[in-house]
Amino acid sequence: MALYPVYHTYCSADFLRNTLAGSAYSSGWTQDADTILAMIERASRMVDSYVGDQTFGPTTETRLYDLGGSQPWYMGNGTLRSDPRPTRSNALSLQTYDYRASVVPLDRWLVSATTVTAYADTARTTNSVLVEGIAEDYLLEPYNTSPKWRLKLNEDTTLAFGAGQQVLSILGTWGWQNITTPASTLSAAITSATATTLTVAAAGNHGAGTTIVVDSEQMYCTSRSGTTLTVRRGVNGTTAATHLTAAAVSMVEYPSDVKMATADLARMQYRDRDMGVVDTIGGGGQGSITRSSSEMSSTLSTLDHYRVARDSAGLVF
């Protein structure tokens, strides 16, 4: 996971209430607020774990990579690098040499790279800043879809990867996607970077369990009372700042199947809280509720296509 807590919850508390009770009844449901928030947060982290400790919302972070090899422009088989891919054998001498030059598999989904820095060696005293582009230094793959999970040097670049520990630094926006939708505006300025409440012009859908964006700052909403939101400031690698009245407030969006799977997982937790250690509530006939041993795994399996994206990372065909 990221180097800091991830505040992306893939369905809101209101969405889970609607799932459990229906929209006609959930509006009057004010109990269990802390419990429901904890359940959707836990369900979201279960989803992250299932797809390989990834996240579906944007986080800003610098990630560091070790590179090895006897030549500075090779990734190679450095003694400190674990790489399961085979090397190519020389048929005459039976010696192996590296054919994976210039390709770095990324351990996280990457939305976009801001700054890519290559250091000459572990000492990190000499570096080059690489520029993305077909006529520049590196490319991100796959070319036509997002997220990205490979970084490859352009064959015409004059720059190179070094060999050693933490010799490649990538500052970027990581996650499956970075999509927001307009939600409201600030009805009053946020004059302090430490303030934990804000007022919006319209409450909309951004309640407990949602991540909102004001200017470039992400905030995680833990509760809502009318148009007043209680938030955690500067989350997911962003920086808390002041904001002007009428600043746009957007809400981070997640894939619909991830949202629904999270709600289903949280629903199971809510049901299991009432059921305790028994597998069936009721007499076992019509109207009873039975816990299915495979329900959770079946729900998670609906996200298998994201695991394919993860497992493909770093493979060069």
Task: State the gist of this model.
With 317 residues, this protein is α+β, with helices and mostly antiparallel strands. It contains 6 helices and 16 strands. 21% of the residues lie in helices and 29% in strands.
3D architecture notes:
The strands form four sheets. Strands 1, 4, 5, 6, 7 and 8 form a six-stranded antiparallel β-sheet that branches. A six-stranded antiparallel β-sheet has the order 9-14-11-12-13-10, with no helix packed on it. A two-stranded antiparallel sheet has the order 2-3. The longest helix is centred in the C-terminal third of the chain and has 20 residues, at 256-275. It contains six helices and 16 strands. It has 317 residues and is α+β, with helices and mostly antiparallel strands. Helix 3 (33-50) crosses helix 4.
